[in-house]
Amino acid sequence: MQEKIIKYIEEELANEELDGGLEATEDLLGSGILDSLGMMKLIAFLEDEFGCKVLPEEMVIENFMTVAHVNDYLVSKQ
Amino acid sequence: MDFSWTEEQLQFKNEVISFAETKLNDSHLVNDHKLEFMRKNWQLCADFGMLSLSVPKQYGTHTKDIDILSAILAMEGLGYGCRDNGLPFAMNAQMWTVQLPIAQFGTETQKETFLPKLTSGEWIACHALTEPEAGSDVFNMQTTATKVEGGYILNGKKHLITLGPVCDIALVFAVTNPTLGKWGLSVFIVEKGTKGFETSLNKAKMGLRTVPIGDLTFTDCFVKEENRLGSEGAGWSITNHSLELDRCSVHASQIGAMERQLEASIAYVKQRKQFGKSVGQFQSVSNRIADMKLRLETSRLLLYKVAWLKSQGKSAMLESAMLKLQISESFVASSLDTIRNHGGYGYLTENEVERDLRDAVGGVIYAGTSDIQRNIIAKTIGL
Ligand SMILES: Cc1cc2nc3c(=O)[nH]c(=O)nc-3n(C[C@H](O)[C@H](O)[C@H](O)COP(=O)(O)OP(=O)(O)OC[C@H]3O[C@@H](n4cnc5c(N)ncnc54)[C@H](O)[C@@H]3O)c2cc1C
Asked: Any idea where the Acyl-CoA dehydrogenase/oxidase N-terminal domain is (chain B) (predicted)?
């Protein structure tokens, strides 16, 4: 799951070219890797790819700060 | 995708049109001139159940939940029947950017405390995001909410707030964690009369003059913890959640207004005679009518597509940006074409043709300007 998310962010969403690839613990939001639109695209991707529903109240930094956070959040929903 | 409507949905739309035509059109010309908000008409709409369309049935006046497609069609009917474009605009602002977020993110106590008062028309609410220095770049806001024992202290100023001057409660966005940027915003329900919360008088403006719009100021304003909507940091999610539906519904009313405008234009150019024939017989005039029809129908298709996507629980970020851009720009262009087709008659305020143009211009600014919608579209498709 984690690899798929990293690949999608690297290829489709990252605002700038990422030196040396994206780490699972890298700050996606504070660092500006994802902007608002990127975040919404990521949510649409997660819903399509993993068949989950991201509820509006779950779209908070605790769940989306890093790829590792996203991964934990998805696992918690399974 | 199925674009057919049920009998029940169409019947509801027709009931809304006939309600609006018979009850809401008696004083808008004077209200527009004098910048007057018609509280009486707001109450009539609440009593009819319009304000309840955006909340679950237990918080409103309907006996069953209203699906988004029916709500959109009803708002289209309101825009068609109500000749005051300001009233549907203001109602939509409260319904989708205040009531909906409270229904989605609120605690049970918040829902029970605020929603019935809003849907019944007893209270009026506004959504306060924009600031003097943060418009399009709204997440760069300066208003702060500092955590203290039992709540938060708000300081800052909100600007251009629809219904601000007459609000009983305001949904206020403020920074709770400055290091997190847009992820550090939280939302508070601030009640009128709270110490340190002030509203400005209604501001004079070009169009939508029947809607009070103004500033809100917070000076060491204490807000109880139980009045925070959602968790700390939920501000981004709360805006995003309501945005697509707000764009859909406010523009549904504009579709209704564009249809009314087109019908009036056709009737006028048929009966107005120059050079021995109806002006509608001149191709320059009929071309404008054809363009108006095309704008109406392309806008309507986008509207129904977004409403359908939302009814399926899908995201509509690209589609709602295209919808907002298409309808708001179309309403401006068609309003100008209508004035051209009416000649000097259309230029006089008393004939109720030019008002649509003044009302339409706000649509290319509020809820993200046309430039911002173009940015979203370009970015979403890969630029
Ligand atoms: C009728 C009306 C009702 C409103 N109601 C509310 C309300 O209830 N609550 C609320 O919070 N706000 C409300 N607003 C405020 C509204 O959301 C803002 O006016 C809007 O977001 C634009 O911000 P601004 O006016 O500061 O313009 P600015 O952001 O200063 O824009 C000025 C110009 O620069 C352009 N521009 C800015 N940034 C970019 C960019 N990145 N790319 C391209 N062009 C750019 C804009 O398109 C515009 O042409 C309302 C506004 C109006 C007109």
From this structure: 6-122
Domains within chain B, CATH numbers bracketed: 7-123 (1.10.540.10), 126-235 (2.40.110.10), 236-380 (1.20.140.10)
Q: ipTM of the assembly?
A: 0.77
Q: Which residues, at least 6 apart from B250, have a Cβ–Cβ distance to it below 8 Å?
A: B75, B88, B89, B92, B93, B96, B363, B367
Residues within 8 A of B (CB atoms), A 39-58 only: 39-41, 43-44, 47, 53, 56-57
For chain A, the domain total comes to 1
Q: Do A36 and B236 touch (CB under 8 A)?
A: yes
**What Å distances lie between residue B205 and B78, B208, B368, CA to CA?**
23, 8, 19
Residue B163 backbone class (left: φ over 0; alpha: ψ -120 to 50; beta: rest): left
Domain of A52 in residue numbering reads as 2-77
| Alpha carbon of B264 to ligand 1 centroid (Å) | 31
Residue B137 CA, closest ligand 1 atom number: 29
Mention every residue, 6+ apart, whose C-beta is less than 8 A from residue B269: B278, B279, B280, B285, B286, B289, B341
pTM of the entire predicted model = 0.93
